[in-house]
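Q: Convert this sequence to structure tokens.
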Amino acid sequence: MSLLKLLLAASSKNASLQTPLQAQQWRFLNVHEYQGAALMSKFGINTPPGTPAFSVDDVTKAAKHWADENGEVVLKSQILAGGRGLGKFTSGLQGGVHMVTVAQAPVLAEQMLGSVLVTKQTGPAGKPVNTLYVAQKMKLVREMYFAILLDRKSAGPIMIGCSQGGTSIEDLAEKFPDKIVKIPIDIRVGCTDAQALAMATGLAVTGDKEAAAQQIKALYELFVKTDCTMVEVNPLAEDPSGKLIAADAKLAFDDNAAYRQADIFAMKDDSQIDSRRITILAVQNNLNYVTMDGTIGCMVNGAGLAMATMDVIKLAGGEPANFLDVGGGATKERVTEAFKLILSSDKVRAILVNIFGGIVRCDLIAEGIIAAVKEVGLKIPVIVRLQGTNVDQGRELLANSGLAITPADDLNDAAYKAVAAANILSHAGGIMKCDVIAAGIVNAAKQVNIKVPLIVRLEGTNVERGKEILRTSGLAIIPAEDLDDAAKQAVKSITKA
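A:
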């Protein structure tokens, strides 16, 4: 009965905020270390020599080629997450980065390739290792930190450096705050010789400062010419001669520049985006999607409107099941894919669509929604609030569609209708008899003092007796014959409301 109370508590305006699930939202393209190294080399940036390996045979050949005088190479797992060295494979193998002999390389590669590596940044699900970077073992004597980021305060790029490196910038800033160097860059001028030299001095390079400054300028050129949002080199290291080497780097690219950085965006590795199909589906259809713990699916055009919609759902006593921004074009195709994303959660009991028809007319949006509902075969109530050009025609199309689509007058109306529709209970009585389940529902509904219609679908042992208990309870509980009937009853109840 405690689970029922949790569900019914959605009707209370004091329902607590649900914690969002960990879900990766695609905003910027990230590339693997070996891809970044190849890209940096094109700009004259010093990187450790190495070769990507996609099979054990590839590892064997690359290990022989890059072995040092002691016959050793470095095997690096290629995943889009940090903390690889301290990570652990789900098979039990410790560490995603290993220094091995040529003979050991294929043996270890057999255990690493195709396995899942879990690090602090991947979450418990981990990420698959489909590629190993077989790199030459470098002799490095100093490690520093260097990054170029977009800075809101200065409204442009900013270089950040620290003469200490090899660990996260957060840890460095805590341990060595006086060694952090920040140099804002005027995007119209670029990185000047003086700024590059100032950064080289701040990094306390021991070798040729002019050469070091040229490496810093090359990193800035990479940042600008490839539309990066971030270039992070950690560690930026020195070899015994004082030569700077980008020993490990993380590059991120602005996805708005995909049209002019086609070669770079062709490097995208969908296997690393998220282990769940739904996130890849959002990426492929250019939908901004984050899953949450509630029961009311949301589809909105515009991030600000989406946030407002979730707030109003909360005020109406419900819980949003997701954040989903379909962007400026609410076409049938995009709405269809958005419905598929929302329905990927088995917690969703109703869907609230909140669309502002500006450039696109509301009647065309309504036609797209109707076509999408038919194509997806939706079995749950859909509440639609339209506002904008031809709004009355759009609402009329929705009302006459013959589908479980309910038009709403405004956002508040839509939210309250969605909360009411979400209060559908569907329970199959197997070991537990339906009359016992029904009695529990009635008792729980009385305890939480439910104020909205509750539609209940029961199936199993003593189902007729259970329905009778619900009908004679004196509460706003409506028994349904099946799931389709439950959806129709919900739509009927909110239309009356």
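The chain has 18 helices and 23 strands.
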